[in-house]
Design brief:
90 residues; alpha+beta; two-stranded antiparallel ribbon; two-stranded antiparallel sheet; 2 helices; 14% strand
């Protein structure tokens, strides 16, 4: 499986194998970062998209990233694999 460029939960760049989460068998996840996914499960399986949005905004602000970059990242979250099924269809 090809490595996604961004975690499909939080949108963190997956720049190298050190950033990858792990599957049950210990292999590296090709979709999720180590902060979101370990041992084949989400670290916080009850987390909502709204909670992830607030977490991502806070972390990016701590990093002093430009507001435009934060807004683009937050806008992309509902399109990631973890959240796409939770987005209401209008």
């Amino acid at each position: 499986m090809e490595l996604n460029q961004f975690c499909q939960s939080c949108s963190m760049p997956l720049e190298n194998d050190l950033m990858l989460g792990t599957e049950k068998d210990g292999s590296k996840s090709r979709q999720y970062c180590k902060y979101c996914y370990q041992d084949g499960h989400f670290v916080n399986p009850q987390m909502t998209l709204r909670e992830m949005t607030e977490l991502v905004k806070g972390k990016m602000r701590e990093m002093h990233l430009d507001q435009e970059i934060i807004d683009q990242t937050v806008y992309s979250l509902p399109n990631l694999n973890r959240w796409i099924s939770q987005v209401p269809v209008h």
